[in-house]
Amino acid sequence: MRQLGWVIFLISGHLLAVPPQDEPIVKAVEKVRPAVVNIYTEGVVTQEVRDPRDIFFERYFGGGMSRGNRILQTPLRNLGSGLIVSADGYIVTNQHVVDRAAKLKIKVTLADGKETEAILLRDDDLLDLALIKIESKEPLPYLSLETLSPNLLGQTVLVLGNPVGYESSVSAGILSAKDRTLTINDLTMEGLLQTDAAINPGNSGGPLVDAEGNLVGLYRDWE
Fold this sequence. Notes:
Layout: E1 7-11, E2 14-18, H1 24-32, E3 36-49, H2 52-61, E4 70-84, E5 90-93, E6 104-109, E7 115-124, E8 129-133, E9 156-161, E10 169-184, E11 187-195, E12 207-210, E13 215-218
Antiparallel strand pairs: 1-2, 3-4, 3-6, 4-5, 5-8, 6-7, 7-8, 9-10, 9-12, 10-11, 12-13
């Protein structure tokens, strides 16, 4: 016989049993998950490089047999997550998920498994944010940006995304710190939030929400 687990809360001196389907975190995931998408980009990066035979003849024979530069084309693929923020298909994600999208094909997989192509509307590398758009004949599930989390230190937060290309996963942690500054090479990002929620490659661009399903921010992995 299958047994159900229960979560016990102590409220004002009284024990209150809550079945799993009524747990606040379960409710928050049910609210947010339909609006989380998988984003896959693919394309080709073109580089002009010297022919290695030119380098050889120049080093040992003083040149004279130049064949000119070669065009090297390297496949570029990227994987991440995103959040639908309007019923007509606007999606926010990290800029690095759709980096160089002018030469890339952006494919979006919805929570129900449907696939469609997206176009890049705007991106900002300083904020690491991008806005993309998909078309749909039916209104899409979305997470409203009108009600945002208060972002309190120590509050429970959830990460939803599509790690390493799998269907959406959920991990939980707390909001560990606010207003962090991070410098990577020549890029300095300020006002960042920090959490200890577990993530994997592919979670970038997915939502970080509180226990009521209100948006805290977009998650970015720093691998």
